[in-house]
Predict the structure.
Amino acid sequence: MEERAVHVLASSVALVVALAAATPAPTPFPLGTLQPFGSSTPAPQVFPNIGRVRSVAPACAAMRDLIVPSYAAAQRSDVRFAETRKRLPNYAELVDNPLHVEDVYRQSALAKLDNDATKLLEEAQIIAKALGDPRLSAKSQDPDVLAERTALQQLYEGQMIRANLLSEFVIRQQAAIAKNGIDTSTTAFGGARTAARPSATDQPIPALTAPPGMPLLMGNELSDKQVMNQWSTEIAAVVYRYKNAAAKTFLPIAKRCSN
């Protein structure tokens, strides 16, 4: 089982590094600018199965016991966020639909996003726990261990950026639901007590700016779905850059451990 997990890590790290080598890096941009970036998917490189190594070197032990499960957690988060990216435009559609803006369907959709955010945070805590392990101490005299720690910190920061942004979005939407008078004390399909919807003349003018890192929804279904798609694409690009930087450090160390 351990060898299989390490092999999965090996293939994943090689794929990330291969992507970085074959694809021009996108021009960095801050979240919220909604600027596009390019991507492609070249064939992955072969990566050594470090799970079979018997080295007792500190860096190899840390790679096997701490880096492997941390990287696996990041991979699981990627899979989860891929589903989140499908949910976000669907949620925007419910928000903009007069038939669903204040019903249990919106609550249910937001609950799924909340679950996603919670899961992303849980996976990030696996990496945080590894960073707190004495085998990856910042006081280590082993340069490979220090390099692993720095790379793992990069991986953690990328995961937390994604988890925190999604969490903030969910919190803001929960506040908006409460402000609209939706009863959130019931289950998603157990019925809800809703307040009378304000008339069109009472509706506030949509804001022309959004908080830093948050998507700007203007009340138009088509454009808001595009905004949500672009927002999640930007987040994925940021996480990719952090993950790629970490993988570039992990790969040569893992190769040395396999020799």
Observations:
- Residues 58-96 form the longest helix (39 residues).
- DSSP finds five helices and no strands in the chain.
- The CA atoms of residues 82 and 236 lie 9 Å apart.
- Confidence is low (pLDDT under 50) at residues 1-48, 182-203.
